[in-house]
Amino acid sequence: MNGSSGSQGHNVNGGQKKVQHASPLTLNNGSKHRPLTPMRRCRGVACVVIILSTAFTLIVFIAPITTFLVRLVSVHYSRKATSVLFGMWLSLWPFLFEKINKTNVVFSGESVLPKKRVLLFANHRTEVDWMYLWDLALRKGYLGYIKYILKSSLMKLPVFSWAFHIFEFIPVERKWEIDEAIIQNKLSAFKDPRDSLWLAVFPEGTDYTEKKCIKSQEYASEHGLPILKNVLLPKTKGFLCCLQELKSSLDAVYDVTIAYKHRLPDFLDIIYGTDPSEVHIHIRTVKLCDIPTSEDEVTDWMIERFRQKDQLLSDFFMQGHFPDEGTEGDVSTLECLANFIAIVSSTGFFLYLSLFSSVWFKVYVLLSCAYLTFVTYFSIQPPQLICSSEGGTHAKKVL
């Protein structure tokens, strides 16, 4: 799951610098923090079964109501209901990370206040970075409102594609001539300031590997750009497009840097709980007035931000931590357990209705699956048929 797409968009300043290839320390690829025992395998399989079964059941029973029936009356309340209800399911993931896997999630940098409409950009160390942003959103009360720009191929995954669609994630082709219109069209529907929105962008466009780092360094050397060891050169077209579409209604922009101890995890690592031992998330607030508006200036500005990220990560690998740790507390174990029980109980109730109750529940499940498949395949969002007074007032303000 990647962030902004598009061409490199870097300024060429001439001159060459010696390429410094990434070192093993930079890659942070040691041995697994915990061994993969049979017990961990069984626990991982159980977690996958619970997460998939609850996701499927809740989507099938609830999504047609919140994303179709409610949306016909109010897009705003449709999004709110969807985000609140399915945000409860998303919180199963931080519960898995922090309480079951015992991963220590350490926040540092600035202590940010909860903001309703946020654009955040982050480095992309590994394929699961985007999942740990849920830990931040959960602490700020906006877990169900976080959205990503993702590869369109992910929209072909069973069940998950339904979730991506109802959450209104933005699928892209990684071809800027196509993606620009897609991003603009999707974000144009999110200009209502009443709608909470946390949009996450990964300007590198892909996750970090040694091979990609060497290629990025060679490009930087040829074009007189900073030689970065721990991040890739950022692409700026996608970020700039998001900024231009949302700037008038944004409450904050967050610059997020992510690092891991002692090994870069993949999806199976977090399912089995073998890695990571620690996730470090450093946050800095960016003032909107400090972000340039032209593409060339944004390119230079973003490259400088990633040069700073590269230095932050170099210091992290030397010192073992980011500066100004302890900006966020732990999530409540009691609240996590209560939410888990509520989700599992609801799933059990819906499964009972489907299997042992009236035949009409079986018909509802079949119709719901057909509806979700149809709207996801054709990327359809039902329109609001009833104009509310609040919507009309907002429209007048915009005009």
Automatic annotation (TrEMBL):
Pathway: Phospholipid metabolism; CDP-diacylglycerol biosynthesis; CDP-diacylglycerol from sn-glycerol 3-phosphate: step 2/3; Lipid metabolism. GO terms for biological process: CDP-diacylglycerol biosynthetic process. Its EC number is 2.3.1.51. Residues 1-34 are annotated as: Disordered. It is an enzyme of class 2 (transferase). Residues 118-240 form the Phospholipid/glycerol acyltransferase domain. The keyword Flavoprotein does not apply. Pfam families: Acyltransf_C, Acyltransferase. Belongs to the 1-acyl-sn-glycerol-3-phosphate acyltransferase family. This is 1-acylglycerol-3-phosphate O-acyltransferase. It comes from Oryza glaberrima.
